[in-house]
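Consider today's protein:

***
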Amino acid sequence: MKNEKFLIDNREYSPQRLLIIAELGSSHGSDPLKAAELIEAAAEAGADCVKFQMIYADEILHPNTGEVALPGGNIKLYDRFKALETEPDFFAEMKERVEKRGLIFLCTPFGLKSARELRKLGPKCLKIASPELNFTALLKEIASYALPTLLSSGVSSLADIEEALSTLAAKPEAGHEASPVCLLHCVTAYPAPEKDYNLRVLQSLRAVFGLPVGLSDHSLDPCLVPVLGAAMGAAVVEKHFCLSRNDPGLDDPIALPPDSFARMVLALRQAEKATAEESIEAMCREYGRETVESVLGDGIKRLAPSEKANYGRTNRSIHALRDIAQGEIIEPDMFASLRTEKLLRPGLPPSWEEKLTGRRARAVIAAGQGIRFEDV
């Protein structure tokens, strides 16, 4: 099928030749030696692609977002992201290492600054994380690059996905075609229960949007969700990668260490050669038919039970960067589209940014709070 294949740098990926991504996230701790060790381990485990995240705290959330509980005690979530910031030179070095190993370098930007810095590195593709699926300004920026783009669709509705794809299909720079897009099914929970995945939705998404589909998997088992995802037509499988689940990286507790990742790769390479029915039967023998059917689900796109509470909070909305006084005219430097997370109230969707400029505040809007329709 035409819409099964995703093209990166003249290489085609499909259910018969999967793109397997080792998501390092921030597990390297900005240490080039640790990152080099992770890249080598991912390559040895069979990854095709190694993925990073270019983090600037100010692009993601407000300092008043709240705290996160860590083994050493509570710490501001903003400070946790601030500690993960890494200079662009680090990613330039990592890109060189990854490509020398014959793998694809992939990185996620979280705002316009990181997107523009990544573009200067000359990547062959980009990834948009689920919380940024509704971040209109970022989608428009990435659409202008005309690069193959992986769009993760966790904590989103069909309408959200449709709007995002419409934005990514906007006219790119002169002389370029629109970005090829692969839509990744995802459950935005850490870890995500295997039974929340509803993997038949991959077939639904491909039928509705006419795009290649894939899977960004946050479940703990190395094989169950990835293999069934491949059976349902995934051209891409992404899984977090670590050296040890006891390491201090933000996502290391739900990531796969090298031996488990290698086991997943072997199972996926076998699934490439098998029919969907053969892969499903193999999983039934290992996990039981009832478990397999619960993971496959009914194929209707809906928020998974484990991510429902995150909808509208993990996604982006417009937040005040400082206190805005009653009657004050709202200017662009007073707000930003950020993740709300747990403590603050959500605001208007990012698509309202231009409409908000020049409006007058009806009441005081405290720094960090979402700016709502009734506030202006």
